[in-house]
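User: Please predict the structure of the protein below. I'd like the answer in structure-token form so I can feed it into my own downstream comparison script.

Assistant: Understood. Taking the following sequence of 329 residues as input:
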Amino acid sequence: MEHILSVKNLKTSFFTREGEVKAVDGISFDLAAGKTLGIVGESGCGKSVANLSIMRLIPDPPGKITGGEVFFEGRNLLKLPEPMMRGVRGNRISMIFQDPMTSLNPFLKISRQMTEVLEEHRGLSGEQALKQAIQALDVVGIPSAASRIHDYPHQFSGGMRQRVMIAMGLLCQPKMLIADEPTTALDVTIQAQILELLKDLQEEFGMAIILVTHDLGVAATLCENIAVMYAGRIVEYGSTDEIFANPRHPYTVGLLESVPRLDAKTTRRLKTIPGQPPDLVNVGSGCPFAPRCTYAIDRCRVEYPSAERFAEGHFSHCWRAKEVTAKST
């Protein structure tokens, strides 16, 4: 299957007074055209930084992409001159940012924020851009789009603002969409509507999607494959079915055990993962999850695990991966 995106050994660090924070530490993955990859994990594990690195939106200083390659449609985005990269952002690759309450400029009407994208990337006149922007709002379900487009962001609810963000992301019909926590701070009813909307739009436009979330339930709804991140690394990767049925990393098991399941045969208390994520300035050479892991052995504390492979495309970075089974969940 043709890959529209190939990320190879991507590394991004932030240089602080305390030292180098390795926010993304050598991740690799592929994404096929028209498919969805979910990137899951706790807050601070590097999910958002990884995708901001793909878009080359890391603030420098203090951040810097220190290594790796990001091939999109055959071109290494990390080597493109900035003017060419600006032609990719919002045009070939769009991103829905994490917080719809703060991602829109409060001083500009929705109309100006949307038409600017089309004028910049497609060279449309103001009238043509406005017409397409209204159509985009119609597609994402904004009622009375022709009049609402002239409102300011504060005149929309959180769910409507998220729909505006999705509409902006789709204006140029991108080949890939990065959705960074698109349902954060939304109630479950609106969350379901947004997820259903993303599925419908993906089918209509044939987009590839990277879905960043800490909610495994959301990932299960949309994604064919899931990458589990911890301390800046992908610790487990596989198809959604494999990750849920046969998790092979203790961290993945911990995430699954913290989610209520309607199909559970018995009532059980939800578990938590003990401890806190590591200080990324002083991660050490061993497995960063070892201090929180019930499977940890001495080797885990001194040597980072190599990849143990299972079903096609499914791997786990754990020395005891074969002992971690679905029965643990």
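That's the full token string. The two ends are 32 Å apart (CA to CA).
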